[in-house]
Amino acid sequence: xxxxxxxxxxxxxxxxxxxxxxxxxxxxxxxxxxxxxxxxxxxxxxxxxxxxxxxxxxxxxxxxxxxxxxxxxxxxxxxxxxxxxxxxxxxxxxxxxxxxxxxxxxxxxxxxxxxxxxxxxxxxxxxxxxxxxxxxxxxxxxxxxxxxxxxxxxxxxxxxxxxxxxxxxxxxxxxxxxxxxxxxxxxxxxxxxxxxxxxxxxxxx
Length: 205
Prior knowledge:
CATH topology: Rossmann fold
GO molecular function: methyltransferase activity
Number of domains: 1
Oligomer: single chain
Domain Methyltransferase: 43-174
Number of helices: 9
Pfam families: Methyltransf_31 (PF13847)
Number of strands: 8
Strand content: 15-25%
CATH architecture: 3-Layer(aba) Sandwich
Keywords: Methyltransferase, Transferase
Shape: globular
CATH class: Alpha Beta
Organism: Paenibacillus macquariensis
């Protein structure tokens, strides 16, 4: 698993490396981002929190349309690049694996979104973190997570076999058949959509 220093090093080439990649782990990457972007209602009163904002690939398109963006990341270089794209956004240097920081605790968001970041959190902690995020939503708010994920454990295991040495053993990918019932048991309304061979969207209300 990359450290913040590792992501600092990767930051400059991050988007280009994804653009030139094929298959796992970024199969369908831009389709997933577009799906999340299309969910967000565009108006100046819309507030969006991006968990693991990186270089801003997910939220830049909606920022350009006037949405208010807050972003979290543990990589100073990633935040620097995101801030250059979105100078009116608010950014917080924090490791979200420890939960949401106090700086955003007083805010209620219309949308909390995340792309290719939640897989850094171990599965039991994912549930707790998502429940915490729910507490920072407005009454009509929505959480939308795009990430490397699979509908079934069988799909996960098959991708692992096919990926061979490219498989990252330090990540914790979502399996819908497992995580959806756990979130529903917390009283959340959950929908999962598989968008590519290894990419899916989790929508939580």
